[in-house]
What we know:
The chain is of the alpha+beta class. Among the domains are: 5-116, no CATH class; 225-284, no CATH class. Helix content is 48%, strand content 8%. It is built from ten helices and five strands; from the N terminus they run ααβαβαβββαααααα. Strand 4 and strand 5 (96-101) form a beta hairpin. Helix 6 crosses helix 10 (255-283) and helix 9 packs across helix 10 (255-283). The longest helix has 29 residues, at 255-283. The protein starts with a helix and ends with a helix. Residues 265-284 are annotated as: Disordered.
Amino acid sequence: MSTSATDIKGPKAPCRFFRARHIPYTYWYEYALRYHGSKTVLSYLYLLVDSVQDAASCLRSQGWTDATLPWSAFQSYDPAVDEQIILGCGESEVFKVVLLSSHTWPGITPPADDNDEVHYPSLPQLYNALAQRFLDTDDEEFRRYLNLQIEYLYEDSAALASPAFVTMLPPDIQQLHIDWQLRVLCMPISETIQHEREIRSRARRGEWSLMREGTAELGGGKIDYEYEAQMVARIEAKDAPRMAAIYGPDWKSLPSWDNMVREEWEVEEKPKEEGAGERKVQDG
């Protein structure tokens, strides 16, 4: 029996095909965030699958074809390690699915179950996988995207604020959660990434005791709130009309607004660091 155009369209149509054929999948990124209370906008359907090729073959047999995302889309994978296939339905720019291999996401094993709700990760699973990849990757664009996803969770998921949540995470990522929650360290910058990687390594060796007061005094780069306020004023003056037109009058409450400021800070700090290194070589 042929599949009608109506059947193959719809944001979650690929999942119906996968369940019918017992192909494992897990909802990822925006769909997973929304399931756990985030108000993030749903864009494309991101799915983690056990076999990207098998999942893609299934959808191609139902009329889906190779597609691309617009240039403005965030980089949602690390090209050095992640396998990704993007498929679309006809000429529509709306119905696109991004298939990602689950094998690079710690703790994620996509189920093959008839119940659609089973395919959403638990909140600890989602947080752990995002946070582990945030530390693992050396791709700055991908890390910025992961930073945004994690910030959305902190913004809208009340469970993350619970003292019990840290106990639900693997021991090697618990300190990262505490440090992130305290808002003292600037998480995406290189100094903090290296600092948190070292803590994770020590935790994996059983050599780390959890510091609920945070680890900012041991390393990493602290958020300079005075400097950040100056950045906010400057970016507001430059981008306020455009941001208000796109996101409405409450645009400054978006987690992405904080990310814009932090990214501007990171970009400005890098030349200073590189310049300092050059001076040190010359002086030596």
